[in-house]
Amino acid sequence: MAFTPKLAPDDTEAKNFPPIFGTGFVVHEDGLIATNDHVILSFPKLPRPDGYKDWPVAALFFILTDNGMTRFAADIGGVSRLSKFEPGRAYYGPTRPDIAFVHVKLRDLLPVTLRPHGARYEEGEEVATAGFPMGTDHLTAPGWLHQLSPTLQSGIVIRILVRRRMGSQSM
Known about the structure:
Elements: E1 2-5, H1 12-16, E2 22-23, E3 25-28, E4 32-35, H2 37-42, E5 57-65, E6 68-81, E7 100-104, E8 126-131, E9 151-156
Antiparallel strand pairs: 1-2, 1-5, 3-4, 4-7, 5-6, 6-7, 8-9
C-alpha cells in the first residue's frame, strides 16, 4: 500500500495518478500498517485547509483482481512512533530504527506473513521486495502513467556474512 496526500496539486501528473510519498505493508488484520518513521514525519507537512481536523493523508491500497489492478483509499485513524528503543547485544543498526506504524480505518485485511523473530536466512533461499521506491516518478517515467502496481523485485540469497564481535575470537 502507499501513502498519498488527500489534497494533490492540480497538475496533469496528479490527475493521472496521485503523488506517492511513502509505502507500507499490513501487519495486522485490524488495519495496522508498518512503514518508515520518516514517512510519518511528513504527514504534518502536507497541505490541509484551515479547520481541517482529519489526517491530510490517505492510505492507497492496491489489489490484483481478475480484471487487473484496482486501488482504493482508506482514512488514517492514528500513528505510532517508537518512543524508546533498547537493542540487544548484537545490534548493529541505527540508534533509533526508521520504523513506525499507521492505523487505517479498515478491518479484515490480509497481513503480510513475516519471518519469525530470530529465524535466519539460508543460502539459496528466495526473497522478494515490493514497493514504490521512487514514488510516482517511476510510474510516470516516460511522461505518462505506464504502471499502476508496485515495483516487485526478487532474488536468491547467495551468501550469508557473519559478523564476529570484538574479543570473541580465540588465539
